[in-house]
User: Fold these one by one.
Assistant:
Number 1:
Amino acid sequence: MDGQIRTLGVIGAGQMGSGIAHVAAAAGFDVVLNDLSADRLNAGLATINGTMTRLVKKGGMTEEARAEALSRITTADSFAALGDCDLVIEAATENEAVKRKIFSTLCASLKPTTLLASNTSSISITRLASVTDRPERFIGIHFMNPVPRMQLVELIRGIQTVPATFEAAKGFIDRLGKTPTVSEDFPAFIVNRILLPMINEAVYVLHEGVGSVEAIDTAMKLGANHPMGPLQLADFIGLDTCLAVMQVLYEGLADSKYRPCPLLVKYVEAGWLGRKTQRGFYDYRGEIPIPTR
Ligand SMILES: NC(=O)c1ccc[n+]([C@@H]2O[C@H](COP(=O)([O-])OP(=O)(O)OC[C@H]3O[C@@H](n4cnc5c(N)ncnc54)[C@H](O)[C@@H]3O)[C@@H](O)[C@H]2O)c1
């Protein structure tokens, strides 16, 4: 089945969708990138071009390869343009209702052989697959952020996923030069089941006044040898995504230890979503990030 993947559809041109389009185009796939509006698509393309241009400057990519990769990406604000795709990866907002709507309307535009995947950080692959007309061809392909730099991809089979779908997804990941790991279909899978409760705990530590933003991040960088502090990482992931993952863990595992921190809820309610809105636990509007608490 893998040999048949030539054209990739990506739904959502945000941080993750643009990263997935970037690595796929650089690996030689034709990519159709979809989002709700031309503005979002242009922002996604600008991100891809910016990242590739920085790579060229650093010697990580040739100018020719950059131009070629960009020419392989087309954009579309409707699903009709995804008709020729062999695999479509959904990387839209982490909200089950949004994803269910996408998958239930998308199928009518696809050929019967098209494989479907979600890049969800936490939501049940089995449930998402169930709203499609091809649950056996559905799989979780969970890339890490930033996609061009991170080596790992989690593969998650739904209960309906057939072995050929898994093998095709694995072959696709291999062709991107990434390393897959396999997780069962449980809330937040492996990486986020471990990572997000730590981030949520860091927000509780801030909320309870145990330490400042700077103290918490410095403590975990220098005291636990983490490359990035947990609050800096939360801003990088997006606080809306962090909250959505904690809600899936809290509801899906029915255990109070996953209760989202009220301060995280407040930041999201304020629209302070981290880097993508220029303000989260740090304020990114100036030359250097300034801690907000
Ligand atoms: N941010 C991370 O670190 C990270 C890591 C791994 C996986 N993910 C997952 O990837 C997905 C996307 O996250 P992100 O960080 O890129 O979010 P983002 O907010 O940067 O981008 C989401 C994009 O989806 C688009 N969108 C929303 N509804 C849509 C629809 N109906 N049709 C088409 N496009 C639609 C939005 O316009 C936006 O451009 C989420 O499921 C998230 O959990 C995120």
Note: The CA atoms of residues 87 and 115 lie 5 Å apart.
Number 2:
Amino acid sequence: MAIRLMAMMFVLHIILLLNANVPSTYARLLGNKTMSKEKVIRRYLVENGLGLTPPMGWSSWNHFGCDVNESIVRETADAMVSSGLANLGYHYLNLDDCWAELNRDSEGNMVPNTATFPSGMKALADYVHNKGLKLGIYSDAGTLTCSKRMPGSLGHEEQDAKTFASWGIDYLKYDNCENNGISPKERYPPMSEALMKSGRSIFFSMCEWGWEDPATWAKSVGNSWRTTGDIEDNWNSMTSIADSNNKWASYAGPGGWNDPDMLEVGNGGMTTEEYRSHFSIWALAKAPLLVGCDIRAMDNTTYELITNSEVIAVNQDKLGVQGKKVKSTNDLEVWAGPLSENKLAVILWNRSSSNATVIASWSEIGLEPEAIVDARDLWEHSTQLFVSKEISAEIDSHACKMYVLTPTS
Ligand SMILES: *[C@@H]1O[C@H](CO)[C@@H](O)[C@H](O)[C@H]1NC(C)=O
Ligand SMILES: *[C@@H]1O[C@H](CO)[C@@H](O)[C@H](O)[C@H]1NC(C)=O
Ligand SMILES: *[C@@H]1O[C@H](CO)[C@@H](O)[C@H](O)[C@H]1NC(C)=O
Ligand SMILES: *[C@@H]1O[C@H](CO)[C@@H](O)[C@H](O)[C@H]1NC(C)=O
Ligand SMILES: CC(=O)N[C@H]1CO[C@H](CO)[C@@H](O)[C@@H]1O
């Protein structure tokens, strides 16, 4: 009886803590006069708890572009739950460009497009929240968004952040078009602060396309920052973005993540093995896992790729260290990174045009030469016991193998 009561009180305590978290964290940190504003925001971005691991969910852009509407979002929310994606951690449903009217209302507020979002954003957020999911929205650190069909938030940061909070928005992607030539370093912090003051925990996803090396400064502005231009649904775009993003690996960690853009898996422009590589590298690189296909109609192959819970576990590992490319010879690559509990994630990737044997020796991936490991193949779901010195595999062109290595002693 006493134990049950204590357990209940404990749960209650956690619930209270979670609810009280937002404004009080910010106020408490602001009250500490020994910290610079920059440091306060940096601490807040960790303590708000939103970016302890990379965000997971879905975004409308890669598949729907501007042709998105509230029925699509509701049906996608239903599919997220019925397909089991929600249970695997895909929680954000993110609107991208084109959700608003071109003109603000007489009080200067952004207005949902009356034709495509006739019920409004509050109703949509309620629907999504009732499914146990979260709703993301989109704006731009400029005068208009990239489609030029809706206003940007430059100069309206506080008002728009309050509007988003009042609707129950959980995530903001903030784009970089129509920016009047002003540096991102001046345009992004005002929205960061506006979100913190909004009274609601809102994940801040910065999208300045890697212009001013955001990895070096954005950790005190947002919970994630794009490191590159937009991804396209083809092998060349995906691999070149993976490489550009890789340069900034050492800057990522709990609270702030490099973002090489949303997933294209399931959109049809790459082969199954190319999509498997795409998903594996994004997971290892601790990238946001934002599915970009129409999940209401995804095929079985897509489903198999994006629901691999062992690969997702690498992405969501609590250590939060971005894996990186550790070897590259003639398009045969090894990517690796540490995980919690002394484990190691490794990808052998054949980027060449014919099949090949790819080898990772222990010294190349940071293991002691005498280490003995169990090697879990995350795509075959099989384990090789007592592997020594190196791991290797024959791999088809553009395919990869992904392992978690666990030292046996
Ligand atoms: C204020 O911040 C400093 C630096 O992070 C920390 O050492 C100190 O304990 C904080 N003070 C209070 C009262 O939280
Ligand atoms: C949303 O788009 C779909 C497909 O284009 C269409 O069938 C549906 O009626 C639209 N719903 C709204 C609210 O615009
Ligand atoms: C996809 O998977 C479902 C359920 O496992 C199965 O019934 C269906 O036949 C599969 N479709 C194809 C095209 O393989
Ligand atoms: C690699 O290519 C050779 C020759 O074409 C073939 O015999 C072998 O089965 C291929 N291996 C794989 C893993 O595809
Ligand atoms: C470009 C490249 O490295 N291609 C290699 C792919 O794998 C085959 C088989 O091992 C090699 O012969 C190619 O040189």
Note: Residues 14-20 have pLDDT under 50 and may be disordered.
Number 3:
Amino acid sequence: MANPAQLGFQDAATPIMEELLHLHDHAMMVVFLISAFVLYTITLLLTTPLTHTETMNAQMVETVWTILPAVILILIALPSLRILYLMDEISTPPLTIKAIGHQWYWTYEYTDYENMAFDSYMVPTHDLSPGTLRLLEVDHHTVVPVDSPTRVLVTAEDVLHSWAVPALGIKTDAVPGRLNQTTLTASRPGLFFGQCSEICGSNHSFMPIVMEAADLNTFENWSATMLQQ
Ligand SMILES: [Cu+2]
């Protein structure tokens, strides 16, 4: 999760999020270079007496300042498109989870198992045990195995919600009557926190998401206990 007053992103927990962080750094580098150049040019403009006041056109510089921004845009667009198509790549994952948004909790269905579904409610502040996070902890974690591709189907049953977990690089709209598909492959074990990212009603802030990436044995044990309930 994010630290208090954290400015940057959370550490990546999926290969896709790692790619997104690299793209962000790449784009920011371009922004810094352009900002520095513009600032330098403005300073020159304000401190240098004007010469060439009779010049009507300058073909060379106009050619350069038309083509150069286009090249810079292409240098940002190409890696961006690459990640866009990477994120779309689902293939045939061994596990599928269905996340259903409700006002104001999430329901999860593990459709590879018979009858494995549970609701995930936020733990109210007065019920929190020491060391757990206020407004982020839920009563049932959503467990996924580490290093295993997982398909997440996202939908809603009442209004628009959005299933978002920043460390996993996921933000998928939950739309009633629609089934959106996304994928995640947790690259390390851990707890990854998210929140509904669509203004969905008065308790919008109180339907957090807790993804627990665990090794396969832990996942198997957990799924066995969930099936017994
Ligand atoms: Cu919501």
Note: Residues 101, 161, 196, 198, 200, 204, 207 surround copper (II) ion (CB under 6 Å).
